[in-house]
Write a structure and sequence with these properties.
Layout (H helix, E strand, L loop, with lengths): L2 E5 L5 H8 L2 H4 L5 H11 L6 E7 L2 E9 L16 E8 L9 H15 L4 E4 L6 H9 L3 E8 L2 E9 L6
Parallel strand pairs: 4-5
Antiparallel strand pairs: 1-2, 2-3, 3-4, 5-7, 6-7
Helix pairs in contact: 1-3
Length: 165
């Protein structure tokens, strides 16, 4: 499986809105229209990046990263400029449980490492066991638990001092 990343653009918002409305996204995402507007605003923020990830050339999901800041109430040992938070969602329910998430995360983390990033954070909901398994398989370890406006999270961390595969 060949994994690629293309920058998220204006033409991708309609597709993303459709994906967010799907049942397997709705477990963890909010209202599709509101979420699209949040991402639209985030794209204007320094340190935020969004991509459509592809599998063998087909659009297969969404991945984003951002530079953590003091608004995060989480432990960050790496300086913020050397850390990134990430999120991803897989477009098709049929791709869930196939190792896609783990492989996409590994490929994206390798890109971040090549840019000099040393710590990657991800913060799934505690009940999102499928995502937590994928993140653990990609080398992330639980580091903290917390609560924010949209609910609880488990902070998972991967330090990139070691070789990224």
């Amino acid at each position: 499986m060949k994994i690629g990343f293309r920058p998220f653009g204006e033409a991708d918002f309609a597709r993303l809105r459709d994906w967010i409305a799907r049942p397997h996204w709705q477990e963890w995402w909010g209202d599709p229209d509101e979420q699209v507007e949040v991402i639209r605003a985030d794209l204007r923020e320094p340190g935020f990046a969004a991509f459509i990830f592809t599998l063998d050339g087909r659009d297969a999901g969404y991945i984003q990263s951002w530079q953590p800041n003091s608004a995060w109430e989480i432990p960050i040992d790496a300086p913020p400029e050397a850390a990134r938070g990430i999120d991803l969602s897989i477009a098709e329910a049929a791709d869930l449980g196939q190792g896609v998430g783990r492989r996409v995360i590994a490929a994206y983390v390798a890109c971040l490492a090549a840019e000099g990033i040393r710590r990657v954070l991800i913060d799934p909901h505690p009940d999102n066991t499928r995502a937590r398994r994928a993140y653990a398989a990609a080398g992330f370890v639980p580091a903290a638990e917390g609560m924010r406006e949209d609910g609880p999270y488990v902070l998972m961390v991967r330090d990139l001092e070691e070789k990224v595969e």
